[in-house]
Design goal:
Elements lengths: L1 E13 L8 H5 L1 E18 L5 E5 L4 E5 L12 H9 L6 E7 L9 H17 L5 H15 L7 H8 L3 E5 L4 E5 L4 H10 E5 L6 H13 L3 H22 L3 H15 L9 H12 L2 E6 L7 E6 L4 H10 L3 E2 L4 E2 L4 E5 L4
Parallel strand pairs: 3-5
Antiparallel strand pairs: 1-2, 1-13, 2-5, 2-6, 2-12, 3-4, 6-7, 8-10, 8-11, 9-10
Length: about 350
């Protein structure tokens, strides 16, 4: 028997950064995001060969470990080893992992891989975990066990799926699924562009700088985070009211404020691509993830979307087709599969 899981990657519209501790504990964070039809996959095959074997297509690594022992963290596939440790699994299995987006792309790929891993072990071990518990477990694996700097929104987005306005409070997380009109979703999907900038980044470095500035109560950073949170609320309202041009304008506002959070959030390549898109018909947009590289998300005037796409490609950007995904993490069995 083979067990397979998949978790959707996400695009974040607003509130990013307010989910990164200690901001949510002190001031309460909020994000607006949706999942898309790009996924992280995990496959688990029970084995009798006496070893835990992990194949990662993203990192081009095949690693083997001995079962029945706590796996050490040494920089090689630590996310997988920490998940195995956290789920209390000590038997021989083969794991195969891959994602539709590279690590550091800004689509939450690392956290999504972790959610897919938790789900595949949940299925295999028959554990009674709901979506909140899956997301919380993935968060603890990344942020507590491995001490990887980052926020909370990616794990919850991957676990729940769909359009969500998520509140991060001192003692709990509240995921609010949004019931957005089908006409609004169709128009939003039609007018968005996703452009790969040609580079990835180490988000932890950028977030460390942001966190340090917040802890020191840097006025510009605190005010920008507060504004970004307020903007996420307004963007949610605009989506629910089908006010998409206002939504596009607020994407631009949010990006202008996000650039103030840390020095490495943008660079000349990203700025050039964004300026080109604005010059030719994009109302607004933002770099997904912590910044520094990955994917630009752009909202365009409907009759200029094709022009923006053409100009971005001419400038070296790589456009990626995508659609919205309503579902969250899931798993299934493949009887006798190969």
């Amino acid at each position: 028997m083979i067990i397979r899981s998949k978790a959707p990657l996400r695009i974040s519209f607003g509130g990013g950064g307010t989910d990164v501790p200690p901001y949510p504990e002190e001031r309460g964070g909020a994000t607006l995001n949706t999942t898309i039809n790009k996924y992280a996959y995990a496959t688990l095959v029970p084995s009798t060969d006496g070893e835990i074997k992990v194949t990662s297509l993203d990192y081009d690594i095949v690693a083997k470990y001995g079962p029945g022992e706590r796996l050490p963290y040494d920089g090689e596939l630590d996310l997988v080893k920490a998940t195995i440790n956290a789920m209390g699994h000590d038997e021989a299995v083969h794991l195969f992992l891959h994602s539709d987006a590279p690590p550091g792309s800004g689509l939450g790929s690392s956290s999504t891989v972790c959610v897919a891993l938790v789900q595949v072990f949940k299925h295999y071990l028959n554990l009674p975990m709901d979506h909140y518990e899956i997301a919380e477990t993935a968060y603890e694996i990344e942020r507590i066990d491995l001490q990887i700097t980052g926020g909370l929104q990616d794990q919850y987005a991957a676990a729940f799926g769909g359009f969500n306005f998520t509140e991060f409070l001192e003692d709990r997380v509240i995921v609010n699924p949004l019931r957005i009109r089908r006409d609004t979703l169709n128009e939003l999907e039609y007018r968005l562009l996703l452009c790969y900038t040609g580079g990835t980044r180490l988000s932890a470095n950028i977030l460390d700088e942001q966190t340090e500035a917040f802890v020191k109560k840097d006025k510009a950073v605190v005010e920008s985070l507060d504004y970004i949170k307020e903007l996420a609320v307004k963007m949610k309202r605009a989506l629910l009211r089908n006010e998409l041009d206002d939504f596009g304008d607020m994407l631009h506002e949010g990006w202008m404020h996000k650039r103030k959070l840390a020095s490495g959030i943008t660079n000349p390549v990203i700025d050039r691509l964004y300026d080109i898109s604005r010059e030719h018909g994009a109302l607004g947009g933002k770099l997904l993830g912590a910044g520094g590289g990955g994917y630009l998300l752009l909202f365009c005037e409907f009759d200029k979307r094709h022009i923006v796409a053409e100009k971005l490609e001419d400038a070296g950007g790589q456009l990626v087709e995508f659609g919205f995904e309503k579902g969250g993490v899931q798993s299934w069995e493949v009887p006798g599969g190969r």
